[in-house]
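Reopening: structure tokens for the D-malate complex, inputs below.
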Amino acid sequence: MAYLNENYLKLQAGYLFPEVARRVREFCEANPEAAKRLIRCGIGDVTEPLPRAAVEAMKRAVEELGHPESFRGYGPEQGYEFLRSTIAQHDYRDHNIEIAEDEIFVSDGSKCDCGYILDIFGDQNKVAVPDPVYPVYVDTNVMAGHTGHGRKDGSYEGILYLPCTAENNFVPDPPKVHVDLVYLCFPNNPTGAVASRAELSRWVEYAREHEALLLFDAAYQAYISDPEIPHSIFEVPGARDCAIEFRSFSKNGGFTGVRCGFTVMPKSLLAQTENGRRLPLHPLWQRRWSTKSNSVSYPVQRGAEALYSPEGRKQVRSLIDHYMGNAKLLRDAAADAGLETFGGINAPYIWVKMPGGLTSWQMFDRMLRQLNVVITPGAGFGAQGEDHFRISAFNSRENAEEVAHRLKTL
Ligand code: MLT
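Re-run output (same inputs, fresh job):
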């Protein structure tokens, strides 16, 4: 009989969002009337239609594939040059960040990249994650066998958890001990916190001193409105030697269903072999892509490219403004209901302190039953999340207004 990957057996619960969906489904089956009023502010999934610029570009690309003279088969495994050069120019070089086209790897999303990246790292790395945290970082390390067993509070042996609390504005300080890989996400999912240039500089300093690598998830960078807050870890001098950045078109271009994102892997990044040879990671990442993938489809890459066109940028801006308008409504309503709120200013998530005496799953149930609103319980993001819940601003304006109204009755 074949052997299975026993690391999967260490995973303590179903992945957070399917688990939320399962509980919501059960509630709706048992309460069909309440189900009609249900509003979902749980998973951060976009609700508004794709920007027209992307729709038109994808339609044109599909049409091209339907004619012999413009048909294309397999694309480059790293992504088409037209998209990589657009990204390098608009997201980086226009902001005085030196990133080359061949340091961009186009993929089917940053969630996926956060998991794929472990293919090129050894098992010996000491890994640090913020707590609370986007569960993908932890669960993929469990699956890869980089952790010990799970503990009662949902954490895993072998991972260093960096508490993010109101006291540190949900931005952890670098640890006093050595780690090899650190996951950072700003604007943060789930807390909506952002990191200042000084805070990111401390992380880059730590990484350089410890020869650690920062795995920087910038999936929500488009939501930053404060001009002082960096959008990229590469805005910090020295980050080219210690950071990998993940970005996504999901939350700016509404591509959660279309699927497209990218990784920035500087050619200057080094990691070591067991016997101490220092080698660049870029060729390994390239090898990984050319062996395991053919990137994402041509029409999708044309759609992503169109998000950078003048019309595309305007349409993206109006999507972000729409979701941030919701964020303000929801944040204000939660505050009016007497709840302490964080985030929701440079990020589409509002992190809400729990009223005393309930666990975050109990709060989830209460919101579901009393308000018929789905939120995400903080415990799903880690032990430090237990006394908070997250409200997602990804919704129609009508739904956000209705949730704001219901919150006031809480
Ligand atoms: C979330 O709700 O945390 C996100 O939608 C998850 C994701 O982007 O994968």
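The two ends are 54 Å apart (CA to CA). Residues 13-42+311-407 form a domain with the Aspartate Aminotransferase, domain 1 fold (CATH 3.90.1150.10). Marking as resolved unless the reporter disagrees.
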